[in-house]
Amino acid sequence: MTQLLNRLNVKLRIAVVQLNPQIGHVIETTARVNALVSRIEKYKPDIVVFPEFALSGYSFHSRLQIEPYLSPARQGPAWDLCRKISTQLSCVTVMGYPEKCDELTGQKMYNSAIVVNSNGELIFNYRKSFLYHTDEEWGCCENPAGFQTFELPFANIARDADGKMHDISIKSAVGICMDLSPYRFEAPFQDFEFSSFHAEKGTELILFPMAWLNSISVTRDTENPSQRRKDITRSLNALQLPLSGSQGTYHWDVDLQDGTRFAENPEHSTQEKPDNHNETNGFSRPAEPDLSNLNYWILRFMPFLAYADRQNWFIERLLAPLLTKLRGLRSSYMGGVVQKPWLFENRNAIAVMCNRCGVEEGSTVFAGSSSILKFNGQHGDAEKELDSSNRSVEVIGSLSKGYEGVLIRDVEFQVDR
């Protein structure tokens, strides 16, 4: 006989800290973090999430350049700061950092993120699985374990149907930036590797440190890099921002279920936005989120999104031959399974997208727009659009694209136990 599961309502308070770290300025970035944390403390978050390479800066191009910033999981500035924050705020802290690991085969380097509990203990150390070009330049290794899940315990946050509170372990995961994209930008787009893995695993909480780029950035695919750099400089000048982007001007957005609300917009946000978008060339209105990036992140969670065509796939049994070929590798395709149209139906998951902002080297512009998303598992047979208009995803809050800041929200979601 199948055991009936209890559906529990879980409530978490999540703080997302968006930063603009610059290479060579770990001390200054740490000082800004400490100032922000002193203001976050009164809101008593359960989880505080920071970006990829949150303190070190991101654009390293050789092992020699990144070497001074490498540390083992339980050493270095990220570890010290996370332990301090976790014990000070009695919270879980997540932060990206460059890791060195001395193995029998020699020292290896990873793009990693630590998860530290309220006692200052390491719960999990995740290593980026899908590498971006910049990671490869300094010799970063792929995570040999691939995508992973872990249990994140919390006390007295889950309420049952009778109103009784319970301790709970939430099935959680960390992803880092490029993990959300197709492998090496070469895998079929519709494979949705990261989100398919976690839809199949039943992951309930996904914590995503990022250093995701704005579309204006110079990449190896940019046709005229010199002209693009000039465009970036022109954009920053038009917005009266330094060439490294804004630091120390904060966007605060706090909106809690107990009625607590606090908003602090960047001090130049009413003056910084010429209506001529050509003048700012992709980086206009830096006090607002980058909706194109936000919608792309949502699209890459396609298995978690309602999509009406899955009903036809199921009725016509289109997935069975494909999944037979993939047996042993995966059990779903674009969120569909042989047993029912939508694997994620009637489930919930929270995704915390913590991106960095700012500019490095005058050419790498980060997209900011850190956001909290809830996938509600509803409307499976009614939705066609795979973006923020899809009713199966709720954008609980977003920060600006161009400024450092803090987003704090109460999130409620249901889990079965």
UniProtKB/TrEMBL annotation:
Which CDD domains does this chain map to? ScNTA1_like
| Residue span of region Disordered | 264-286
Composition bias (Basic and acidic residues) maps to 264-278
Q: What are the residue boundaries of the CN hydrolase domain, all occurrences included?
A: 12-413
Superkingdom is Eukaryota
Which molecular function terms from Gene Ontology are attached? protein-N-terminal asparagine amidohydrolase activity; protein-N-terminal glutamine amidohydrolase activity
Query: Which Pfam families does this one have?
Result: CN_hydrolase
**Signal sequence bounds:** none
InterPro entries, A to Z: C-N_Hydrolase (IPR003010), C-N_Hydrolase_sf (IPR036526), Nta1 (IPR039703)
The Gene Ontology biological process terms listed for this entry are: protein catabolic process
The protein's name: LAME_0D04412g1_1
